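Notes to self after the Tuesday call (sharing in case useful).
The group wants a holo model before anyone commits to mutagenesis around the pocket. I volunteered. Ligand is adenosine monophosphate. Logging inputs and output together so the record is complete.
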Amino acid sequence: MNILLIGSGGREHALAWKLAQSPSCDTLYAAHGNPGTAHHATLVAMDGSDHAAVRSFCDRFNIGLVVIGPEAPLVAGLADALGDIPVFGPSKAAAQLEGSKGFTKGICGAANIPTAAYEHYTTKAEALAGLADFSAPYVIKADGLAAGKGVIIAETIDEARAAIEDMFGGGFGDAGASVVIEEFLTGEEVSFFALSDGKTVVPFGSAQDHKRAFEGDTGPNTGGMGAYSPATILTPAMQARVMAEIIEPTVEMMTHKNMPYRGVLFAGLMLTDDGPKLIEYNCRFGDPEAQVLMMRYRGDLAALMLSVAQGQLDAVPKPQFSPETALTVVMAARGYPEKPETGGAINLPKSIPESKDDSQDVRIFQSGTGVWEGQMIADGGRVLAVTARGNSATEARDYAYAAIDSIDFASGFCRRDIGWREVAREAQAGTS
Ligand code: AMP
Ligand code: GLY
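Result:
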């Protein structure tokens, strides 16, 4: 089977590495990929937003599976445009779980899924008046896709008013055409992944990430500066609750509403004193969460994704993961997230080659990289995801930082405290 992977980040580098290992994968193409992905796939200069081009590429190159990495093409309906070609990734209707916070809240209400109490407003006047029904800290969200920047936690009512003014004033583009205000939840956040074909749904691992740019979880929000998997705070008992109370009712409700969900469902959860609550859904793998999940996944990814695409997830073995911990540290270009300095030279150590198999416990996944006159350079905000596997988060972290110290990337920076929660838990339990 020939496979087409859409996307060009570190997530797609990790997916390409695993897909290329699958016995059922003949030729893997990536559109448009990056220099890291190029080790495992034939790069295609094609834009995922050009649905007709993707469709005709699939016909010409006999593509048997399309894997869509990022949210934007899913929300724009690329899966629908591909007709009967098997696609790993939800339809436009089902991708509303990420594309519209108001839609997701509606599903939660209809299926009785625990989430923060909320109101959805379509005018500025209503939203401003609605603030009276909430108390500080106020959680204000632009309804649509805002590249991780659509959530404002306002400590005061004046800040909350300003956020609403900004959203309805176009500060968040179309994403802010309507707004959700919700109850502030307290607890520890965790990410949970499940695969669904619309009928069958299976767990696909957990992770915790670090969204803030700087150490101590300070500084501006980013796409993610690091992550690790599994998140042990999500105990087997808690995972069973998440499946029964949140994931399964969501999948059932989507099928009931004639929008069967096919792909990976990435739930952002808050573990509150009242149990797990849904913060948000994403309709794709996280970046850099995919990097740690792929370091632990043991199996034929292409066959698994095809079974999801074809509604036959019940016919393949349940996904299996290494019991080890994987941890990834993002090296970003100086100035990220506001104004990343691109063009800086990067030299990767020869001691960490890009092997095609799963034999290495340390791998460097490339996100925003490019090549200029034979020299690897930074070509984006988040540039590398340096990823390691170990018997504990502490061990994986030590391997990842040792690798980072061997990378020559003078204009890059990283956080030095990735995994601190898990490392602290291990120190307390004596399991590091
Ligand atoms: P989201 O884009 O919905 O994941 O929100 C971004 C971040 O805002 C989340 O990862 C949380 O840290 C925080 N957040 C979102 N909603 C809430 C909430 N209701 N209560 C507390 N924190 C929240
Ligand atoms: N790392 C968070 C995300 O991909 O949404």
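Two things stood out.
The chain is about 30% helix and 30% strand.
Residues 209, 223-224, 282, 286-287, 289 surround glycine (ligand 2) (CB under 6 Å).
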